[in-house]
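Discussion board: Methods & Data

I've been asked by a reviewer to show the raw model output for two of the constructs in my manuscript, not just the figures. I'm not sure how much to include, so I'm pasting the format here to get opinions. Each protein appears as its amino acid sequence followed by a line of discrete structure tokens. Is this the kind of thing reviewers expect to see in a supplement, or should I convert it first? Here is construct A:
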Amino acid sequence: MIETAGKNNLLDIQLEKTSSLLKIMQAKETSMKEECIILHTMIKGLQQTVQYQHNLKGENEQLKRNVDFMKEKLKSNEQEYKNNIAKLISEMKIKEEEHKTEMSKLYQDMQRKVELNEEKHKELMARKEVEISELNAKLRTQEKEKQNEILRLHLEFDTKLARAQTKSKSYPDTTILPQSIYRRKLQHLQEEKSKEIASLQNTIRDLEQRLAACKDNRLTRRRF
């Protein structure tokens, strides 16, 4: 974007210089027109003088030569003005074409960059969606494993509790300690599994938020 701004500034400076040159030429045109008016007035005056002093042949011839000289000078000035205006118009057209070409190139470059960024965002969102899908599958698997493990421990606990209760018929106070140990082990396992599932859920939530932010940014760029 800095390079683009620099090029635009350079083109603006060149157009400003061309505009300044046009103003100078217009000022010259005004000056030449005023000079032409003066020359026309002088010619008219000289012609009147020639007509008035026609009996003075020598002076009359000189006045005629002066009139001819001024006419030639007027023609020369008019032609020079026309040539300068034509040259200036040609230069302005060339600058305008160069500016159009440069702006078209800059637009194409920016369009390619936007399209490239669009592709990158699409790939990123696709990867994030796959990652979220995999994590969801992993979460479901872990939840299933957790339920199976809890069920297995319950069965194991019930089996050992039944054995302990069978033995406790001879030793009534021996069942309290094993029951407490099994309950603590079961509770600890449930807490660990819950932490793992919560961590996975947080990861999935974070990825979904990032994916939504990427989509929002993409829509914002499209609007502009």
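Construct B, same format:
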Amino acid sequence: MEEKKKRMAILVGCNYPNTPNELHGCINDVLSMRDMLVNHFEFDLNHIEVLIDAPGSLVMPTGANIKKA
């Protein structure tokens, strides 16, 4: 039986809220990508690191946090 490879992903979504460069949809894109990786490519949800700048996010997408991920 073939051993299943451990797949990992880091997904970063920055909408830059309350700035002149505010974007709309980047966080939704990250969440959709996470769902696609889990549902279509058999990624383990525990092996996907999501960094978004939404209010209440546990881990903000700073340079330092991206490097730690």
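Answer (T.O., handling editor elsewhere):
This is acceptable in a supplement if you add a one-line summary per construct. For B, something like: The mean pLDDT is 93.
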